[in-house]
Amino acid sequence: MLFGHLALARRLGFEPTLDPRTRLLATQHAAELSGCRWCIERGRHDWRCARLPPILLRHLRDYATCPFFDQRERTALAFIEAASRCEAQSDAVAESVLAEARRFFTEGEIAELVRCLADHHFLDDSIP
Known about the structure:
By secondary structure, the protein is mainly alpha-helical. It is 63% helix and 0% strand. It is globular.
């Protein structure tokens, strides 16, 4: 499932539709989960350039209970977290997490979330 969404996000002519704040939150969460210092700092830079409130990044790990995030953002962050735990042999995200994501996001937006994760976390360059 993840590879299919990633292929969609990288398809020629694919137009991103995910709002910038959600995309930046997802990217930053993926970077922090990966522990890549460069990715984390790059995400913070992009966040500052977008002039978004820095307090959100300080509470990113507490997204599930923090009042600064709406339900759509919480769902995106939960999806990123669940997908980051997938193993290469089994790219399945828990059905409940995927079902919740589909309540708030189109398939194209889910593809964008997967791309945020892939660009900063779990895929190597050999995957198309």
